[in-house]
Amino acid sequence: MGRPIADRMSAAALAIAGVAFAAASLVPVPAQAHVKWFAPYIVDAAPQPIEATLTNVWFWTGIALVLAFFLATRAVERSRLGEPVLAALDRASDPLHRRLDDFMRVCIGGFFIAVFAVGGVYLTPDLQTPSEWVSWAQLVIAACVFSRRTMPIAAAGIVGLWLVALRDYDFFHLLDYLALGLGVAGYLVLASSENERFRRHRFETLRWAVAIALMWSSLEKFAYPDWFYPLVEERPFLTFGLPRDVFIPMAGIAEFTLGFGLIWTPLVRRLSALALLVIFTAAVYPFGRIDLVGHALIMAVILVIAADHERQVHFVPALKRRLAGVPAGLATALVVMVVGYWGLHFAFYGQGYEPAPGAQIATHAPNAEHPHGSVAPIEPQAHDVDSTAGVAESVDPAAALFAQANERMHESMVLDPSGDVDEDFVRGMIPHHLGAVEMAEIVLEHGDDPEIRALAREILAHQREEIRMMEDWLARGGG
User: Fold this and answer.
1) Which of 113, 127, 473, 474 is the most buried (most CB within 10 A)?
2) For residue 68, which phi and psi values (nearest 5 degrees)?
3) Where is the signal peptide (predicted)?
């Protein structure tokens, strides 16, 4: 008589999931979302004009491919197969769904314990701080998520850390982390509520938070494609053999549209979540533990979205149920996000700030473990005897790195006098401090003495803080 109905429905679910992953593979996505974690980039530099994206054929190719996937998924969802496919996904995820709130709280608590263990960061490895109390505050947040009475305290702590980070970081840069932070805080508040009318929206809050965070951060690939050039050149396997200028816009579209899919109808959002989960999981091996820590919370939320059995469609449900609603909704999301990103950037920075020679208004200090980008150390060449004073041929790699750092520092400190002693001092001290930061990172990478390593960490904390202060002073036009 053939296979049981349940088996056939499971096979149908697997087939739809296969279509989703196939569509995702047609629009390649980089294995990590925030390249700024690995190297500092100037946030307030002028973004590429949006016209450059709108006239890019690969942008529209990516749009067409994803629209085809979404429309095919919606067609299945509206057919007689729709509910059986969703039911098969329910059965596959039912063990997790029964403990979804416990899973989410454990992941939030585990994330804040991890960033406490990393130390010296606010809410992500990108946002570094020398303030020791921040790490202990994160441990308190982790402890508060396991009781419904204290979950609002944890929520307030998350929002509070974001606000404190404004002291050290640019507001526009922190917008990358606003939606997810507010979403997790909102979840904790709603999950602790005794009012079921409010509580039932807790997972919807997480869906919107991750969707907005992904759509917003994906725009960097259109506004600043050059930020991604060093990463692509360093790890060419990320492009799946595609040319760099084909891969980056299509990767941006994939990240944006899969984020958009998280706020659409049940089958679209669950398959989008599964595709994103594969993408983020694939980043763990090539990018290491820091990437795992940074993305752990967003990966947990994506898994929750994939396992959530909710069928009800909120927010313009009539539009979402129509096939024509897919292109209309995607176009609206693109317009809102693009106008918001380019408009806010112009409101904050005008046409874009050009830093003084040797200065960088960067997202964060250089990372010695991932030194690519505009401040990447130049690998010593065997013939480059003059630039490294003969050290390039040394068997000690740290000695060559020290020589290069010293040379770069002194070259950057050679400045034409402006006539303003304060400005000249600041412009000279910034490369001096950057040299100290780079040498401290070399010690942490290659040194063994505990006392010297402790001194290097102290230098990193204080010098980075002073670099930010001096760069802010220059950005304001002086005293």
Assistant:
1) 127
2) -60, -40
3) 1-22
Q: What is the pLDDT of residue 1?
A: 35
Show me where the domains of the chain are located: 5-30+47-349, 391-475
Query: Cα–Cα distance between 421 and 225 in angstroms, integer?
Result: 37
Q: What is the structure's pLDDT at 351? A: 65
Give residues with Cβ within 8 angstroms of 365, minimum separation 6.
40, 128, 437, 460, 464, 467
Architecture of domain 391-475: Up-down Bundle (1.20)
Q: Which two three-digit tokens encode residue 314?
A: 């909120």
309: Cα within 13 Å, side-chain hemisphere: 15
- How far is 249 from 50, CA to CA, in rounded Å? 12
Average pLDDT of each block of 10 consecutive residues along the chain (479 residues)?
38 41 37 44 75 89 92 93 93 93 94 87 79 90 93 95 84 85 94 91 93 92 81 73 85 92 94 91 72 82 93 87 90 94 86 48 43 38 39 55 74 76 85 85 78 80 81 76
Say which amino acid occupies 290.
I
User: For helices 5-26 and 266-282, what crossing angle results, to 10°?
Assistant: 60
Q: Which residue has the tokens 């570094």?
A: 128
> What integer pLDDT is reported at residue 305 of this predicted model?
94
pLDDT for the residue numbered 377: 39
Which residue from 290, 291, 444 is spatially nearest to 368, judged by alpha carbons?
A: 444
pLDDT for residue 207: 93
Q: How far apart are CA 69 and CA 19, in angstroms?
A: 8
Q: Which of 317, 388, 347, 360 lies closest to 470, judged by CA?
A: 360
> Which stretch of DSSP H or E encloses residue 464?
helix 450-475
Distance CA 308, CA 310 (A): 6
In the chain, DSSP finds a helix count (H) and a strand count (E) of 20, 0
Report the C-alpha gap between 435 and 343 in whole angstroms.
36
CA 118 to chain centre: 17
What DSSP assignment string belongs to 255-286? HHHHHHHTTS-HHHHHHHHHHHHHHHHHTHHH
Task: Quote the pLDDT of residue 473.
Answer: 83
Reported residue count of the chain is 479
Location of structure tokens 């947040």: 141
